[in-house]
Amino acid sequence: MRDAFCKGMIELSASRPYVFLTGDLGFKALEPLREALGPRFINAGVAEQNMVSVAAGLAGDGQSAWVYSIAPFVYARPFEQIRNDVCMHDLDVKLVGNGGGYAYGSMGATHHALEDYGVLLALRHLRAYVPAFDEDLGAVLRGMAARPHPAYLRLGRGEKPAGAEVPAYAPWRLLLDGGGPLIVAVGPLAGALWTACAGLDLKTRPQIWAWSELPLDPAPPQALLEALKKSGVLAVVEEHVAQGGAGQALAAWLLEAGLAPKRFRHFSAQGYPSGTYGSQVFHRAESGLDPRSVLQALGVAAA
Question: In CATH terms, are 2-155 and 172-297 the same topology?
Fold first, then answer.
C-alpha cells in the first residue's frame, strides 16, 4: 500500500497543507512526495521519540503533522511521546506505520506490529485506520485529514482478488454475500478471505465483511446485524493479538447490546508458536489466520 499512500498524500497536499516527517525511511517509494512537499518534507533521522515530539510541537503551532516509519518504530519506541505530547493534548498528529502485522516476515519480532492498534486505542482521542485495499487510501487519507485529532494508519499489502471491483470505502463493507458463517476481517486479511471464498456455493459460503476503523464507532451496520441473527455464527479475523484487538471490542459490544451470537470465534496473531521466523504467509499459517485454516475451523469446505 505504500505506493498508493504516497500518491494519496501528494493529492492531499494540494488541498490540505501539512508537514511530513519520516524516520529516515521511505527510500525508493516516497521520493515523489518529497519533491511535492519541498521543505515540508522532513527527514527526522533515526530518532523516533524526538520525531513525535517535533510533530506535536508543529501541531501545537497550528500545523497538521504526519509521522511515518516502520510500524513498530512509530508506535512502540515513541509511545511515551504519543501518550504525553500528542494524545493528552489532542493534537493533529497522524502516525503512519508501514508493514502492519507480520508484514516484515523474516526480519523478526522487532519488525512486526502485532499489538499496535490495541496499544494505541488505549489512549484518548486516537482513531486507528486499517485499510484493506490499495484503493482505500485516497478516502482514508481524506477522512483522517478532515479529523483534527490524533490518528494511526496501519499500512499493509492490498490483497484484492484478481479482477474484482473493490466496493467504495467505508468503515464497514460487505465484500462477499453468502448464507454461511459471518466473517468480519480487519484490514488486508479481508482480501485473502474474499479470494478463498469467492468460488464457493452461495448457500453455504461465508458472508465476508471488511472492518477498517477502530474503535467501534460507528456501530456495525444493520445489514451485518441481520446477517448475524440469521447465521448465528460470527468469526473475527485480525493480524493482531487478541488482547485489545477488534475481536474483543466487537464481542463486548454485541454482549452489551443483547446480540451475542450462538457461536463466536476470534482468529488472532499467536506470536511465534514454532519459535522461528519466516514470511508473512508462514506466520499467518502458524497463527491459523490463513483462509484454509479459518474455513476449516468454521466447518466450511474450501474450494
Answer: yes
